[in-house]
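Example A, followed by Example B.
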Amino acid sequence: LLDQAIFCLERPRSRLAQEYRKLATEIRRANLEDRVGALEFLEDVGRRVRSRRALPRGLEDQVSEIIKRHSTNGEILRQVARLRKRQRKWADAIGLLNQAISNGLVDSDSLLARAEARFAIGDKREALLDVLHLFRLTEVSSFDLQPAARLLTEMDGPTNAILESPAIGALDAWEITSIVQELESRPADLAVAEKLLRRALGTKQSANAARFAYNQLAICLIGQGKFLEAKVEIRQPQPESLHFDIYDRFNYAMAEWADTKCLPIELFRDVLSLHDERAALSGANYHQCIAIAFWAVGNLDESLQECGRAGESVRVQGAAFSC
C-alpha cells in the first residue's frame, strides 16, 4: 500500500491515482458527519440536479441528517438552502438561510439568496432589507452586485443605495457598466446610472471599456432628455484607439434629432454606411436601431425587414433595452 501511495504521488495522472482519488471522494461523501464530506455530498447533488442526472437514493434522509449534525455551520446550511431553492421550497430555504446568517455567515451570497427567496414568496419588504444590507457590505463582487441591482429595481427600491455602496469603488469600468444596464429600464434610475458611469470614466480603464462606458453614458443622457450633453459626451476627446463607431453615430443622430426637432437624414446615412461594413452585428437592440435609420432615410422595406429581425432576436434571446 505504501508503494502504491508513493506511485500515486509521483504519477498523479495515472489510472491508479485517479481510482484512489475517486475512492477517497466517495468515502468522504459517505461520511456526512464530517464537514468536508457533507459539503462534497451537497455539491455533488447540486451537479446532479443541474445536469438532470439521477439523485442519490434516500436523499431527503441524508439531507435531514446533514441539517441535524451541522445546525451551526453556516456554509453547509447555505448549501442545503441552495438545494431547497432549486426545489422551489422557498420557506425551507429562507429558514436555512436565517440559520446560516445568525451563525455568522453574513455575506453577499447569503443575503442575495435570502432576498431572492423572500421575493419569490412575495415578501418584498424583507427582501428589500436584505438587498440594502448587501449594498452596505464592503466586499461584494460584481457577480452579486448586478443581480442585487436587478432585484432592487424590480422592487422599486432606492437605487441611490448602489451609489453609496462601498463595494462599488473596487469595481472596474466593465463591471460598473454591467450594473448600469440593470438601471436602464426605469427613467427614474437613469440619474444614478449617469453618476456611476461618470465615476467609471474617471478611473483608469481599457480603451474598449471606455468606449462602452461612453456609449452607455450617451444613452443615459438621452433618456433623461439631456440631448446637448449627450452630443458633447459622444464627441468627447477620447484615446486614439477609440473611433466614432456605429453606436456613437446612431446615438449622436438620435440626440441631434431630439435636440433640434429636425430629422438629421445625413447622420442616419452615416450610420447605414457603417452598417454595410459591420453586417455581422446582431441583436434586438441593434436591428431596431438600424430599422430607425432605414426609416429616417426613407427606405421602408429595409426598415421593416430589420424590425422583423429584431422581433426574431427577442423571440430567441429575450427582450433587451433599446433605443
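Example B, a separate protein, is given below in the same form.
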Amino acid sequence: TIPTLVKAIGIELSETNLETYIGDFANFGLTAYAKTEGFAVANSFKVEWSINSNVVATLTQTDSEANGSYCLLVFTGELGSATVTAKLSNILNGQVVDSFEETFTVIVNKAPIVRYTFDNGEIKNTGTNQDVNGRITTINSDNTAILDTPDAEVDYVNGADGTQNSALQLSNIRNGGNHFTISGLDLGTGDFTIKVKINIRQLTSKTDSSNYLFGIGNIKDAESGFFNIAYKKNGSKNQIKLRANGQTYWCGYAPVGEWAEFTLVREGNTLSLYINPEVNSEGIKVTEVTLSSTEALALSNYDIGFSSNVGCQNPGDWPTYYDDIMIFDYAVHPAQ
C-alpha cells in the first residue's frame, strides 16, 4: 500500500482577536490548527508565524506538531495593536506547494480607572482609581436616598466565565432590594466607557420598561446630565431601553438566562450602546444617539447604580447577575 501524505486544506486559529488592558496578561498563547485530508505523515506541511509590530508584544514560536503549531505572545506593557499571521504551507519533496494564512489581532488598551470583580464573594476594585466607593446598597422608603447595606445577605453566583461565586445577584426591588452603587467618580462631560456583563435571569412581566439595569439616575431625581438603561417585556423578549437627552431609544433585545456584555461609550457628543450578543442580530448591535449638548450627560453629579437608583420605579423582584464592571476615562468601542 502506498502511504498517502497528509495535505492541509486550510488553517484555523484558536482565537481570532484579543482586546485586553495593560497589566491583564504577561503573555498569551495562540494555536494554529491545520485542516487536513489524508493520513497524517509528519513534515508534510509547516506553520510559520509573524507579527507586524513588536510595540505591544513580541512573538515566540514554542512548539510545532504534525497537525499544527503553538506560539506565545509576550506583552511589552505598551499601548497599541498588532496583527499576528500564521502561514501554513504544504510541503512536497521539500518544496512549498501551496499556502494558507489566518490573522489574529491584539489590542492593548489603557487600564480601566474602575474595575469591580466579585471573585469568591469579595467586592474588589483593581482599577487605577482607588478613591471610588463601590458597595451594596438599597433605596429608602421615600425613594429619595441611597442607603448603604454592608450587612445585606448577597448571593454570589457563577460568573460570565463559569467561575463559581464570582458574580453578584441583584434585585430590581427598589426598597430593600440589593443594588450595587459606585460613588466618587468625576469624569464631567468628558469621554467615557462603561462595560458590564449582565445576565437577565427571567422574562419580565413588566411592559413599562421599569426594570432598571444601570445608569446615573432618572429624570425624577436628575434634572440634567443623566442616563439609564432598562428593559421591558415585548412579546417573548426583554427589550432594552436607553434613556438620554430626556428621550427614550429602543436598542434591541437581550438574551434571557444568558450572559451579554453591555458597553456604553461617550465620544464627544455621541453616545453609543453596544449589546453583545443581541438576540435578533445574533451578534453585536450598536445604537448611536447624538446628545443635545455637551452638558446633556455628566458623570459627576450622580452615583452610578446597578439594578436600581434613586428616582426609579419599583417593578418587583427580577433577579439579574452582574460581573466585571469596568469604567474607562476614554472611548473604547468594541471590535465588530
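On Example B: The mean pLDDT is 89.
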